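Anyone? Bumping this.
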Amino acid sequence: MRGQANPVRAYGPILLMAAVLGALPLLAASNTLLNAMVLALIIALAAQGWNILGGYGGQFSFGHAAFFGMGAYCTAILQTRFGVNAYIAFAAAVAVGSLVGLAIGYLSFRSGLRGSYFALGTLAFAEVFRILANASAFTGGAAGVLIKLDVRPETFQFASRAVYFWIALGLVTAVMLVNRWIERSRFGAWLVAIRENEDAAKALGVDTFAVKLKAITLSAAITAVSGAFYAQYFLFLDAGIAFGPWISVEALLAPIIGGLGTVFGPVIGALGLHFVSEMTRHVTGRIPGIDLVLYGALLVVMVAFARDGIIGLLMKLRARLAGGRA
Amino acid sequence: MTAGGDVILSVENASRRFGGLLAVDDASMTAGRGRITGLIGPNGAGKTTLFAMISGFIEPTAGRIVFEGADIAALPPHRRAIAGIARTFQIVQPFAGLSVRDNIAVGAHLRRPGREHALARADEVGRLVGLGDKLDDPASDLTVSGRKRLELARALATDPKLLLLDEVLAGLNPSEVRDVVPVIRSIRDTGVTIVMVEHVMQAVMSLCEDIFVLAQGRIIARGGPAEVTRDPKVVEAYLGHGAAARLVAREGADHG
């Protein structure tokens, strides 16, 4: 936040990163690579959503699957059951996702849930949604929902994976810009103050309940975008995919690995994790769940040795280099 | 006293019960606008509880807290801050992960939505309390004295009408106390009303114009510094039952 009074220094690196990544399909257009990148960007989006609430606000959710799944199911069901246009379904899914965030936030924060109690509360919501989606005929039950393949721009379906990649990258970049803007706003300052010390924030006039509600609503909206895009990209989902713990874990792991409460943290974390997990698959072959074992090990290492994530390590390195030169 | 003067805050018959313990028992006090009012009393007297009731962190079980003519006893803390009441914490509560400047800016944001304005105000207040050369340091690097100053700066940055200082001088060495006392006086000189809970008597005597003495949850004395220190009830509260009489007797014997 400090040293970024200059808008070029604040927003420039984000646009630069978008430009570099955006050139990727032009250089190496292998479908496998693009597929992996799109998935990593979807995770990055979910993680960016989580990071607003968890990274900046210090409210650790274990249940962001609730918002991801709500976004995914809404976009799919509105199209398959009600014949709604894909783009309108997408927008509606994000709206529903943020309303669910608002509702869960209202219930949790009004009853004063903090720390691990808040985490468990959100986990419970996600699990309830998963079980309901799995049981209800409306959501397709255990068979899941299949969005009809109909490759036309009007249906938000494209033949080229590069287009999906660019859309995902555009979404991630837009959220990064919003994120940076929040860092430079009063809302951001109050959110971080709540993370650092809620009582002190109250004494300074911060309506902590309102700020946390705004944060969880925005957080849920972004993660719902991720879920809606997932549904649109894979055209299939079931309860385990949409509301399963895997996405809650990925959404919180990426910012922790990348750097909590930073603009680049969730994106670097998500891309890094997926790069590592692809590599291990190449090395170890297909051992089921090996990437989860690796994630666990990485998490232990990061929490023990690099609390501030990859971004924190880079900052330390830069400080050391600058110190060496001086 | 403040009789006839403009009263900005009045606590009227406030009580607070914690289970079987009556921490504050029917206490009434006032603060005159633009003055420094002290709240003193032995450990466990209920000073911090009374303070928390004024700032909104604890709700009174009975009584009224009237600020600028309105009963605020039911308002949450942030609404009271908006109304113009700021407090410091006895146990300092810095935003440890933030720089000194960003800490103060959180307070400044209350009446300054723009980031640049809040940061500029933070620099100004930081210099006023003597943290001018530490604005870029992480708050966690500050010494005890620095953290006390930071508490003061953050509260001040909200542009309060009434500033509640909960033992800002505790834990400071005598030379640090000498540095902070003029800062408090200069805050009062800008028109801010101050109510302070304090154990450092030398500072209380030199700063406070009105003093209320709390013992076992009750206000047992009120008046100017000289008046209060001569009050036998106050001496007894601090030194034990019968102490005042013994002191008088000893003085009499010494002179005899």
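Late reply, but here is one note on the structure posted above: Chain B has one domain: 7-226.
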